[in-house]
Amino acid sequence: MEPAEIKSEKKKVVAVVGGGLVGALNACFFAKRGFDVQVYESREDIRTAKVVKGRSINLALSHRGRSALKHVGLEEKIVSQGIPMHARMIHSLNGKQSPIPYGKKGQFILSVDRANLNKQLLTEAETYPNTKLNFDHKLQDWNAETGAMTFVRADGTKQQILADLIVGCDGAFSSIRKQFLRRSRFNYSQTYIPHGYMELTMPPRDGDFAMKPNYLHIWPRNTFMMIALPNLDKTFTCTLFMPFENFEEITTGDEVLEFFQKYFPDAIPLIGVEALKCDYFRLPAQAMVSVKCSPYHIADKCVLMGDAAHAVVPFYGQGMNAGFEDCIVFDEIMDQFNDDLSEVLPEYTRVRVPDDHAIADLAMYNYIEMRAHVNSKWFLFRKYVDNFLHFLMPRTIVPLYTMVTFTRTRYHQAVERWQWQNKVINRGLFFCGTGAVLGGSYLLFKNPPNVDKIHIDVEKMWNRLLSTGTS
Amino acid sequence: MEPAEIKSEKKKVVAVVGGGLVGALNACFFAKRGFDVQVYESREDIRTAKVVKGRSINLALSHRGRSALKHVGLEEKIVSQGIPMHARMIHSLNGKQSPIPYGKKGQFILSVDRANLNKQLLTEAETYPNTKLNFDHKLQDWNAETGAMTFVRADGTKQQILADLIVGCDGAFSSIRKQFLRRSRFNYSQTYIPHGYMELTMPPRDGDFAMKPNYLHIWPRNTFMMIALPNLDKTFTCTLFMPFENFEEITTGDEVLEFFQKYFPDAIPLIGVEALKCDYFRLPAQAMVSVKCSPYHIADKCVLMGDAAHAVVPFYGQGMNAGFEDCIVFDEIMDQFNDDLSEVLPEYTRVRVPDDHAIADLAMYNYIEMRAHVNSKWFLFRKYVDNFLHFLMPRTIVPLYTMVTFTRTRYHQAVERWQWQNKVINRGLFFCGTGAVLGGSYLLFKNPPNVDKIHIDVEKMWNRLLSTGTS
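The joint structure predicted for all components is written out below.
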């Protein structure tokens, strides 16, 4: 692919710390603006590494992430390598599967491979002549006033540079953020949820996916749940979310089996009895943290983006998407203030903090919704009402999930609008309910009913409600 | 003073990091239990130092703090050196002063001098033969698994020790806590409020206090406020709390004067025009932080107490009291588990976290109440209703401030009970109000009223309500 056109001959040095998803994408954004971009990654190059350690293997890419990829010309390529998921597929205890669509017909999220996406982004960043990737460079020290940075290479030698802008994209446990913590008036919180997660693989069956591939499969079990996302190699990655104490209670292969027989019986033959007994003990359950902070910048020298600024729990599928959107938002503000960092950085904090805090809260909220509410009749009824009203009044009523996943509506505005809609809809349902009871009583009193007819009408209405989601 | 009786011949080493209020008091508690107590303080001995840097000079000592001092035989001495404050004294804009009592007759909080209290606690700790105070010892490194610690002395030499228990009492910016932050599943938040504070001195007038001494004076002005606490030398320490941007708007002596003329006119002659113009610029406004975390311990080796575990904003006067109560709670759990640290530390976290989080939230709540609600008629009415009901039913209805300040009711239980009481009282007021309106309408209809009589009755009732607070 051709490197995009390079603006003017600016020579300011941007040091991007972290060569993960957001760091690599950000390198492309800054390269497009004509900066001298240096990416520093403490680990080796994942494209050549033999063993890649690290996080969950698949991610849900949606509109915000795609918009950012489009900006650097990568959207089509990445989308073509992902697997569309049009709906959640809810697995009941008795094995029944029911889909709940994510949005309207044609709307879907994509299951993408984290490692592959990261590799492509790194390769794309390298196509810019004004970008250099420095692997095996561990940040040792840096100065937020001068921009001086010292890195230690794998062989123990040191490299010193002077950056005009330091961009901390070094993840949930960011080293850059540590220096923010030492400064006064930096607000910070890290909250670990009581649940851990564990990944299990569901192999292909007769050369094909063991379950329907175009769904995000969910086994909601109130205090815990399992989900499964499809991979290109026709496997599914199953992720079990459960309180740590429950993980710790299971200590033998037979107990794993007993647990799955009780809660996920339909998954046992698909994962395989022996694999299940063994994989469960391969790695301990991993912790999940939600990080919020403010401000995101120090003077005109340093800014935090991606998980370094706002790690979220994974239950809204927005972690990567929010991080990618950070890059667009920063880029838009750079346009607005003509690359004047002393204006851009405070504005970025002002604009982005409320949105990141909103998505962090939403993800925490969905942490309960996904494993518990999804089972409730009222929740399903409200989902259908929301979708139906969205179908009738597409501009007035937009389901929260749609705003978050399929638009770039600012996260905090999506939440505000959702609260407003909820008030209106609940009030509407209340009045409809009251009206129906009063009207029904009146009609019953006036004309003895034809019960069969009423029954059929209600069913037809209900089916129409259902179909607004799927078709 | 005689060192208290020493229990048995345990030789376990307790390293108390921090020789501030909670560290020094804790040293006494551990010494009483027979441990080999080593206190490490990074600064020099404040009892011999020429210049003492640091925090606000006065504090409000109340029941929880006094209980802890009593435990080490210091209550009477410290109380005799404090100045009782029986009520808040609200200063209106027009100079009118109105008292709002803190509790029942005879209940008061004490204005105490921070430096003096700290000195007395250090001297008390030194009376125990099994306690050593190490000043000018800065913590360089420590190991939460082994208890190995390295300190650097003022002359650059190092001291290494092996502690059985490390007690982090090193304040809101605790170094010990930094290592907790590096561990997984440690929940942490630090929140700076938008307000800063600045201290100004009100000198004595004709050799006596310039205002009534047995009050905590408050000038509530909605978005900001000033308070004043009496000192033994007949001065008052005035503390101005205001958003940082308002502090920054004032840049000249004349602007200070203008600001005070607008909002605190009665304080100008008492502080003095020249002093005011000058003192305002002596130090910049200081930040205030609220810190919450959990757990408080690592294995059986390390525990956080006082501000290191729960820095609170100063608006409930409970920071020191909560820290002192930490020492009693820990001591009680040590009794319960026979000094078995592997049991004591997790239990301390389990018991104390909800209480410390509750007082942190209450202090944040009072941050609004003190500067804003205190001006509202409804707030004053509810205070009197609460006090009146407490007078009628002393066991059923206890005002929140009373539970927090004059009892050792666990903070989180005080909050729960307060919420319950509020529900009951508001419901009661609603029914009384409805009843009164209905009853009144009926009576008015039946008998035309003698307006004078009604007026007198209401006033008498109101006065009785008022007096339940003050007498």
